[in-house]
Specification:
The protein is an alpha/beta fold. It contains six helices and nine strands; from the N terminus they run αβαββββββββαααα. It starts with a helix and ends with a helix.
């Protein structure tokens, strides 16, 4: 009897932990997805946003800037304040004292270091990072504001993606209180796009897409709207359109 009881107990425990692990897997997948932050080209080049994308470096953590999805090759990089971070690339970039047989890179890696005292360089905890990248059609200038942070980072890779390939329906909003409203915005945007009111190639589309990305990363809705250059009136209108489509 005791042996049978032990077998039953073991079965219950195994079933419980199996269920727990399967139930936890979507959470883990969501966390992994959040570790990659996507920024449209129009935002990183300053065409669709007034704010320069900010990269925060934490102790013991580096940040990657990936141009793989944009299909561009990095030709030149400038870090104005080398006293707070080191910079490396996955390829070869020519400098005055170095020539490359095959020039170009697709990923930039930034790593925080203990602040250095560099002669003639003012003390600062921030830096401007300028990247020159070449695509199939033209060269672009990307700007990033680099700073230091004490908390654990929320992402490890910054992906530069084409403005025309932003898939809003696939965006997950796990850091906000009202997930349904953000889904309604995505549906509303899809509806106005189908009706020809907002084109995927337009700057407004990119600004709305950046707004959704900012909210996903934890920004308050009002702040994300202001940073992305859209009004709350537009946000509320998209919610209204998206919710009406669900009710029909």
């Amino acid at each position: 009897m005791s042996k049978q009881y032990s077998v039953i107990n073991r079965f219950i425990l195994v079933s419980y932990f199996t269920f727990f692990l399967f139930d936890l897997s979507p959470v883990i997948a969501s966390e992994i997805k959040q570790s990659v932050k996507q920024i449209p080209q129009g935002v990183a080049t300053g065409h669709n946003s007034q704010n320069i994308p900010k990269i925060e470096l934490s102790p013991g953590y580096g940040v990657n800037i990936s141009f793989i999805k944009s299909g561009e090759i990095v030709e030149k990089v400038w870090l104005d304040n080398p006293a707070i971070a080191t910079l490396d690339v996955d390829g070869c970039l020519s400098t005055e004292g170095r020539k490359c047989e095959q020039e170009g890179a697709t990923v930039i890696h930034l790593r925080r270091i203990n602040p250095l005292k560099v002669p003639q360089l003012p003390n600062s905890n921030t830096s401007l990072l300028t990247v020159i990248a070449k695509g199939k059609s033209a060269r672009k200038v990307y700007l990033f504001k680099v700073g230091i942070e004490s908390k654990t980072p929320t992402y490890h890779t910054l992906e530069i993606i084409p403005d025309s390939k932003i898939t809003l329906e696939d965006t997950q909003f796990s850091n906000i209180t009202n997930i349904n409203e953000l889904r309604q915005i995505s549906k509303g945007l899809k509806i106005v796009n189908t009706r020809g009111l907002i084109s995927r190639e337009s700057r407004l589309w990119s600004r709305i897409a950046n707004f959704l990305i900012e909210v996903r990363m934890g920004e308050p809705v009002n702040t994300a709207a202001r940073k992305s250059g859209i009004s709350m009136r537009l946000v509320n209108r998209l919610i209204e359109i998206g919710s009406n489509s669900v009710m029909r």
